[in-house]
């Protein structure tokens, strides 16, 4: 009996709530200027087409900067900055033009009536016919069939917009000339110097647990100094030789536990810059690839594809650390051809 009374009270409360909070319905629709003024609609159509044309121009600007701007040896840094600026502006205009153009099109020319529809039972054939009818309705309401200026400019912008991304992804292809990364500024007898002051490093100055950011002494002689530095920079560390696992053929690549490895992570090329003295691990801050210094910088964690390349070093007659040769393998990420 008690349960029946509670149910009756609950139904009564729901009815009272429905009476107090009635469905307000869809608000009245207000016509826009473009709905009643054909000249305004035509003007909005031209504005949308202009935005799509801006997207096309942005894509062309990107291609011009990417393929035809070659920073020269003089003012190389300024040339690279200008090229990057144009690449960024081109990409921004390409995406901005399409995005704002579609928004402007929807706000000014597409129907903006609010509607409310009930859910229908889903039946395969009926559902297919309904979906086809909805698509036809969308095409008709968008006006794309009767507005060729918008249609053609959108097709042109949409066809060109993905091309910059394709061009950049092409540079990740295995067909890239790996010789760009196979050779660096290191060579036999080139001194290891501190970055950035260029001070030569004596073997006696490298203590157990220490780490130095090192560049080749001949960096100023390179045609493109920044590019040469990016490829050649290494980390110099010293650890107990008894803890080192050395592969055959590398027995003389270190100097009493002093070793030098490429600073370029073999995942996507970020600079490896963190050294854990107690674990002898090198860490890449970008994606947490971890390299074990005691195992010739073998990958022990993370997405990197292979060990960091080792630079063979020795001591010259004056006690300074020098390179025995260049790296014996290309530096850089693993997705490039390394054969």
Structure commentary:
The protein has a four-stranded antiparallel sheet. It has two domains: 2-170, no CATH class; 179-323, Rieske Iron-sulfur Protein, CATH 2.102.10. The mean pLDDT is 84. The protein is elongated. Helices cover 41% and strands 11% of the residues. A hairpin with a 5-residue loop joins strand 7 (290-292) and strand 8. It has helices spanning 2-20, 33-36, 38-68, 76-108, 124-142, 148-160, 163-170, 179-182, 225-232; strands spanning 192-194, 211-216, 234-238, 258-262, 274-276, 281-283, 290-292, 298-301, 313-315, 321-323.
Jot down its keywords.
four-stranded antiparallel β-sheet; 339 residues; Rieske Iron-sulfur Protein
Q: Terminal Cα separation, in Å?
A: 86 Å
Number of helices: 9
* Count of individual domains: 2
Overall helicity: 40-55%
The string of secondary-structure elements, in order, is HHHHHHHHEEHEEEEEEEE
Outline the low-pLDDT stretches.
none
What is the SS-derived class?
Answer: alpha+beta
Q: What's the quaternary structure here?
A: single chain
Q: Estimate the global geometry from the Cα principal axes.
A: elongated
Identify the strand order in the major beta sheet.
1-2-3-4
Radius of gyration using CA atoms only: 33 Å
- Tell me the strand percentage band: 5-15%
Query: Average pLDDT value?
Result: 84
Say how many strands there are: 10
Report on the biggest sheet: 4 strands, antiparallel
Write the layout of secondary structure elements.
Blueprint: H1 2-20, H2 33-36, H3 38-68, H4 76-108, H5 124-142, H6 148-160, H7 163-170, H8 179-182, E1 192-194, E2 211-216, H9 225-232, E3 234-238, E4 258-262, E5 274-276, E6 281-283, E7 290-292, E8 298-301, E9 313-315, E10 321-323
